[in-house]
Amino acid sequence: MEIEKIDCLIIGSGPAGYTAAIYASRAGLNPVMYQGIQPGGQLTITTEVDNYPGYPDGITGPEMMQNFEAQAKRFGTDVRYGMVTSVDFTGFPHKVVVDGQKEIEAKTVIVSTGASAKWLGLESEQRLNGKGVSACAVCDGFFFRNQDVVIVGAGDTAAEEASYLAKLCRKVYLLVRRDEMRASKIMQKRVETLPNIEILWNTETVEVLGEEAVEGVKVRNNVSGEETVLEATGFFVAIGHKPNTDIFSGYLDMDATGYIQTVKGTSLTNVKGVFACGDAQDNIYRQAVTAAGSGCMAALDAERFLAALEVEHEIIQTA
Ligand SMILES: Cc1cc2nc3c(=O)[nH]c(=O)nc-3n(C[C@H](O)[C@H](O)[C@H](O)COP(=O)(O)OP(=O)(O)OC[C@H]3O[C@@H](n4cnc5c(N)ncnc54)[C@H](O)[C@@H]3O)c2cc1C
């Protein structure tokens, strides 16, 4: 197998990866980036991004990510198509295999592989994705001001997102599959006391209605079997996210869901020279700007790690 030796490898091409790339290339680390199956990351599947600073009139997700890529390339980042298929972080340098056929030895690895929202799996949900269907209330709630929306989920995230939407929307229907929520007591209480949230217990989504935009949601009570239509222009799915971190399991410390654990306030993982940023290590904020901020941290941490390595090397040589 062909082996390439580099200083800095960036895995993933979302806001975190590209920001790391901009900083790492400007610091002279000659980073190589593998984009994975979704070049540009999650924002390439959305339309308007209205909350990223610096774009007063908003920008579409794909256009914004093209700008990120152009900026990273301007400073010399080697951006490549390819998927990291396995890693070996037991020794040093770190070994990474791309597309099962090329091996890279990297002194530093920046993991920015993101996370994917979980969906219900309905055809209508996918068809209307970005046209009223969303998995992020903080990102898209603003577009539904003073309108009626439906949100699905029963955990803390669903409770939090329902409360967030309640501040913007006229009415929020919260669909809970069982007769109780998984959310913490305090979050449940908050949801139950907000006057414009109506919780529909034992309720499942049958179909999101509408051709070009969400016009309503057909729901079924799974106890009585009764089906009803809720009039709504927004449909939010808040049933969890899955971080794209399976290939690192056994090497990097993760929580039960698979989010990489970093040392508080840094991008350091439990493996020296491996740094994590963006949604792959963030189960709380999950925003483009926070991902970008943590990408900057990862590049600075990698730069410091390489500088310390160089000093160590010089001391050994002069001893
Ligand atoms: C529909 C939608 C709308 C959103 N709207 C907004 C918004 O308006 N404002 C906002 O701030 N946030 C928004 N978000 C959230 C935002 O997109 C994420 O917080 C952000 O993209 C996270 O960036 P990231 O770099 O961590 O990861 P991601 O953007 O998820 O990128 C991950 C990258 O890793 C790559 N990858 C994964 N596995 C591998 C592998 N094995 N090898 C190589 N590469 C790999 C992928 O191909 C991808 O390029 C939205 C999200 C969605 C889904």
TrEMBL record:
Pfam families: Pyr_redox_2 (PF07992). One of its GO terms (molecular function) is thioredoxin-disulfide reductase (NADPH) activity. SUPFAM superfamilies: FAD/NAD(P)-binding domain. Its EC number is 1.8.1.9. Keywords: FAD, Flavoprotein, Oxidoreductase, Redox-active center. The keyword RNA-binding does not apply. GO terms for cellular component: cytoplasm. GO terms for biological process: removal of superoxide radicals. Its cofactor is FAD. It catalyses: [thioredoxin]-dithiol + NADP(+) = [thioredoxin]-disulfide + NADPH + H(+). Residues 7-295 form the FAD/NAD(P)-binding domain. Belongs to the class-II pyridine nucleotide-disulfide oxidoreductase family. Homodimer. This is Thioredoxin reductase. It comes from Dyadobacter jejuensis. The lineage of its organism: Bacteria, Pseudomonadati, Bacteroidota, Cytophagia, Cytophagales.
